[in-house]
Automatic annotation (TrEMBL):
<keyword id="KW-0677">Repeat</keyword>
<keyword id="KW-0833">Ubl conjugation pathway</keyword>
<dbReference type="InterPro" id="IPR026137">
    <property type="entry name" value="Leu_rpt_41"/>
</dbReference>
<keyword id="KW-0433">Leucine-rich repeat</keyword>
<dbReference type="InterPro" id="IPR032675">
    <property type="entry name" value="LRR_dom_sf"/>
</dbReference>
<dbReference type="GO" id="GO:0005634">
    <property type="term" value="C:nucleus"/>
</dbReference>
<feature type="compositionally biased region" description="Basic and acidic residues">
    <location>
        <begin position="211"/>
        <end position="230"/>
    </location>
</feature>
<feature type="region of interest" description="Disordered">
    <location>
        <begin position="211"/>
        <end position="280"/>
    </location>
</feature>
<feature type="signal peptide">
    <location>
        <begin position="1"/>
        <end position="22"/>
    </location>
</feature>
<keyword id="KW-0732">Signal</keyword>
<feature type="compositionally biased region" description="Polar residues">
    <location>
        <begin position="249"/>
        <end position="258"/>
    </location>
</feature>
<protein>
    <recommendedName>
        <fullName>Leucine-rich repeat-containing protein 41</fullName>
    </recommendedName>
</protein>
<dbReference type="GO" id="GO:0005737">
    <property type="term" value="C:cytoplasm"/>
</dbReference>
<keyword id="KW-0597">Phosphoprotein</keyword>
Length: 740
């Protein structure tokens, strides 16, 4: 135990290994190691991390980035003496600090982590990792996919990963993509059959020890009895063993009618509807209890200690037992596409807690979800055991084909742990209807947790408001819905046949709290938005982007609808909506006694305004004590309007404004300095009593006079928190002139 002054002098001289071990002693001595870790970052990483102002722990930031760089071979530990310690194992000692990890290209990182010598590293990650990202993936061979299987099984099924994100995969490998999606959803081979580093997964084996004490017949009979109780209205737990008997038949021959029970006429995306509480195994069109019981003696073989035998010898030789990923893919036949939904498994819940399988609802035969046969790639949940699944799935710039959309729809139909779903630039087009089918089935699960859905793409298959109504009618329990499109699909007659227009669908009362719509330059018709608002009494945030107003009265109608239908609305945002001719409505919004945040972003507020408009805004703001945040980026305020806005905080003002955003408003250093001086005068008059705390100044012309800008920023920072950037205005000046 060194004295504090000695320890303070010693800490900068320690290697990373010693510094990490001295963390506890430094804390007890009241010393912070944050400056040392920050210096380590500057010396070793030699880059400025994004959003550095938000980093609260440089120790974690350094070790997490260090782990990733070493894993991907972009950092040589011999490059700095503080990293070169024979006691220090780079991956092992930094892995407990890794909460998010990105795997790229050929998945070299996955291969390295799945290697036997990194077993302890993987165990550490299973406890610390929360976010797993894939970026710029390429096609991979069987050995790489096998390593990925081991990694995902440990980190998701037996770990703590709660979010899986995929980015920028222009030509996705269908096998690899479906593998990641299905394992993220918790579907994979039964623990009794999953090889893990050449042997059985020890965690799966431990889970299966207790059930293995019973006879196969007793398990099947008990499972069917529980199902019969469930069909009478009970909410009993089921057991995986009965399903395993069925799964074995599917693994052996997915195309056999016996494996699926009676033939189904539905397509591969169908989620067959049933009466609430009906037994999935004993119901019509499903594998009967007697069928399971009759086959279990012959099919269900203990897997521990020996390889699975060929289950249907008449079908030919067994598949290679090393092909762990092959079972995911079944051939989509016309007569065997009925699906079973997986059980409800809470995040982190022991996989011994199984609920009964239950059918979903049918896909209504949309263009992107038609029945097809032949091609592989359709995932069948029947052929997998349910493990722990993630709660967030994000797909950015990943083109999804019709086959992949049906696979994703099938997974979504029973993904009860999923809380957040982001589908961004996936080229869905008509296949959005298939995704909606899966979500509709998911919404019927009482244990469904999905609350956030974000969909964005280049082309919209249907008008934005129509899609919003479709989604809310299928999933009224959403709390956040974001729909965003760049361009309107110009192809006429592209609406799926046999599907009633979503504008005619009745919207049940929803739980929606946040709604964001980015129109592809579509007109905003309040009559179409009104049913959504009426069904969303809990709406607190509304964002309308890139909409056009078809007539001068439209915005007034919208404000009346908001006042009538959304009494709890706190935040309202307009972006790229031309409000130059709607000064009256803008003032009405600024008078609203309920709104706490208003955004007019690139709305051309002052393009054709009268001289009285700005003073009216200021006087309205001075009388409004409920508004906390006003965002005016991209409205060409200029110096004189910015200086005038300082009067919002005058001595006679009752404004409670805390945040002001004047980014992208052609503000120059002298104007900012004059605004600062005027603001200081108002604060002095009010005896220092002011609630103003945040000012955003991104992309203004502050580089034209660096000395004046620095003085203005220095004085402003004594009053409030200022966020700005180093923006080169000369690069953007030509663009600004071109759009004036």
């Amino acid at each position: 135990a060194l004295p504090g002054h000695l320890l303070r002098g010693l800490l900068p001289l320690l290697t990373v290994f010693r510094l990490e071990r001295a963390e506890g002693a430094a804390r007890r001595a009241g010393l912070s190691t944050q400056p040392i870790w920050r210096q380590l970052w500057d010396d070793v990483m030699k880059t400025r991390p994004p959003h550095s102002e938000n980093i609260t722990c440089w120790r974690k930031k350094f070790l997490e980035t260090f782990f990733s760089n070493v894993l991907h071979g972009v950092l040589d530990v011999s490059s700095d003496w503080r990293l070169n310690d024979h006691h220090f194992s780079p991956l092992l000692h930094s892995s407990p600090h890794v909460s998010q990890l990105t795997l790229c290209n050929m998945l070299q990182g996955a291969v390295e982590l799945a290697a036997e010598h990194n077993h302890k590293v993987l165990e550490n990650l299973a406890g610390s990792l929360r976010i797993l990202k894939f970026r710029h993936l390429l096609s991979s061979d069987q050995s790489i996919r096998r390593a990925l299987v081991l990694l995902l099984h440990r980190l998701i099924h037996h770990g703590s990963v709660s979010q899986v994100s995929l980015y920028s995969w222009p030509v996705p490998d269908t096998v690899l993509l479906v593998l990641i999606l299905s394992m993220s959803a918790g579907f994979w081979r039964s623990g009794n059959a999953l090889a893990y580093r050449g042997s059985l997964c020890s965690l799966c084996r431990e889970e299966d020890k207790a059930p293995s004490q019973e006879s196969v017949q007793e398990r099947a009979e008990r499972g069917c009895a529980a199902e019969r109780e469930g069909s009478n209205g009970g909410n009993q737990k089921g057991f995986p063993e009965e399903a395993d008997a069925h799964l074995n038949s599917v693994l052996s021959d997915p195309s056999s009618p016996q494996a699926y029970g009676e033939a189904s006429s539905k397509g591969p995306c169908d989620h067959t509807s049933s009466q609430e509480g009906s037994s999935p195994h004993c119901g019509s069109g499903q594998l009967s209890c007697h069928h399971v019981l009759r086959k279990t003696r012959r099919w269900l073989k203990p897997a521990v200690g020996r390889k699975r035998r060929c289950l249907r010898r008449s079908r030919g030789p067994c598949a290679d037992p090393e092909d762990l990923y092959d079972f995911v893919f079944t051939v989509a036949r016309e007569d065997n596409s009925r699906l079973l939904d997986k059980s409800s498994i809470e995040e982190g819940e022991n996989t011994e807690n199984w609920t009964s399988f239950s059918p979903g609802s049918p896909c209504t035969g949309h263009a992107g979800c038609k029945k097809r046969g032949g091609p592989a790639g359709i995932f069948c949940p029947k052929a997998a055991r349910c493990f722990r699944s993630v709660s967030t799935l994000e797909l950015f710039s990943i083109p999804l084909t019709g086959e992949t959309c049906r696979t994703l729809s099938n997974l979504l139909s029973s993904w009860v742990s999923l809380e957040n779903l982001v589908l961004s630039y996936n080229g869905l087009d008509a296949n959005i209807c298939c995704i909606l089918s899966g979500l509709r089935a998911l919404s019927r699960h009482p244990d469904c947790h999905l609350r956030v859905l974000r969909v964005s793409d280049v082309f919209s298959h249907m008008p934005c408001m129509e899609l919003v109504r479709c989604i809310l009618s299928a999933f009224p329990r959403l709390h956040t819905l974001s729909v965003s499109f760049d361009l309107k699909n110009q192809l006429e007659g592209n609406r799926p046949e046999g599907n009633p227009s979503c504008s005619e669908v009745e919207i049940p009362e929803s739980c929606l709290e946040q709604l964001e719509i980015r129109f592809p330059r579509e007109p905003l018709h309040t009559t179409l938005l009104l049913p959504v608002l009426k069904a969303s009494k809990s709406l607190q945030q509304l964002s309308l982007d890139s909409a056009t107003l078809p007539c001068s009265q439209e915005l007034g109608l919208l404000l009346e609808a908001l006042k009538e239908c959304t009494p709890n609305l706190k935040k309202l945002s307009f972006h790229d909506v031309n409000l130059a001719e709607h000064q009256k409505e803008v003032l009405l919004l600024l008078q609203d006694p309920v709104l706490q945040e208003i955004t007019f972003s690139f709305c051309r507020l002052f393009e054709s305004s009268t001289a009285e408009f700005l003073p009216e805004i200021i006087n309205t703001m001075k009388r409004n004590s409920s508004l906390k945040s006003l965002k005016l980026p991209g409205n060409r305020l200029g110096n004189h309007r910015l200086v005038a806005l300082a009067d919002i905080f005058s001595e006679d003002s009752s404004s409670s404004l805390c945040q002001l955003d004047v980014s992208s408003n052609c503000i120059k250093p002298d104007g900012l300095l004059e605004f600062t001086k005027k603001l200081e005068g108002h604060i002095q008059q009010r005896g220092g009593q002011i609630q103003f705390t945040h000012l955003r100044l991104f992309q203004n012309w502050l580089d034209q006079d660096a000395e004046t800008a620095q003085e203005a920023l220095r004085r402003l920072k004594a009053v409030c928190s200022v966020v700005n950037d180093s923006w080169d205005s000369s690069q953007a000046f030509a663009d600004y002139i071109s759009v004036m």
